[in-house]
Amino acid sequence: MDGNGRWAEMRGLPRITGHQRGAEAVRTAVEAAPAVGITDLTLYAFSSDNWKRPAAEVSALMKLLAAYLESEAAACARKGVRLSVIGRRDRLSAGLRRLIESTERLTAPGERVHVRLAIDYSSRDTLLRAAEACSGRELTREALAAHLPAPDVDLLIRTAGEQRLSDFLLWECAYAEFVFTDLMWPDFTAEDLGAAINVFHSRNRRFGGLPPYTFQSGATGARDHHEATRS
Ligand code: IPE
Ligand code: MG
């Protein structure tokens, strides 16, 4: 979710207005997710590096996150949306922590879509903590992944023209498909989400292997197939 600030600045509005509009885009995306087949949606709301921003913006963002949880928890529970928060909690206010806990409790039975809000999240720190949690046991991919708070990513969408991961779900994105859009996050609609999903379905995912052969023509079979699927 990138571009809230620029969305506002382009209109001569305070950055926080952009964040408020961004929160509305979150509501839209969460609402639209199940219909396009999304069962897990992780939203990068506040990175551990975002603490570097001016105190006024940080505090406005924290208030907005609390307001989002407060206003959405009941509706999410009603709609089968499970809402949880990933990231460090020890640097959040006691009030926000309590809100997170009550929202997670209230929405825990939700089975339509699991929305994870990443707040004070750093993938590198998360990986370090997961590795620590495995200490004393054999460190395997499965053992480490069991301590990660989000599943493997199929599709990563980044808005606002940026093309980087910014310490988000590094392990989980090992085979993620990336869709980049110049749209600012507040302008990202349900239709844009659907379009990104369509792009995802058009991708040929091989996970390092080869696509299943539809035909073989001697030693050049693989190349022929690639050409055939690209045409
Ligand atoms: C995304 O919008 C929301 C957060 C990171 C909190 P930005 O605040 O990064 O918006 P830009 O990048 O300045 O436009
Ligand atoms: Mg940004």
Short summary of the structure?
The chain is an alpha/beta fold and 231 residues long. It has 8 helices and 5 strands, in the order H-H-E-H-E-H-E-H-H-E-E-H-H. Strand 2, helix 4 and strand 3 form a beta-alpha-beta unit.
How would you describe the overall organization of this protein?
It is a single chain. The protein is of the alpha/beta class and 231 residues long. It has a single domain, classed as Decaprenyl diphosphate synthase-like (Undecaprenyl pyrophosphate synthetase, 3-Layer(aba) Sandwich), CATH 3.40.1180.10. It is 44% helix and 13% strand. The protein has eight helices and five strands. A three-stranded parallel β-sheet has the order 1-3-2, sandwiched between helices. It has a two-stranded parallel ribbon with strand order 4-5. Strand 2, helix 4 and strand 3 form a beta-alpha-beta unit. It is globular. The two termini are 33 Å apart. The C terminus is likely disordered. The structure holds 3-methylbut-3-enyl trihydrogen diphosphate (IPE) and magnesium ion (MG). 3-methylbut-3-enyl trihydrogen diphosphate binds next to helix 1.
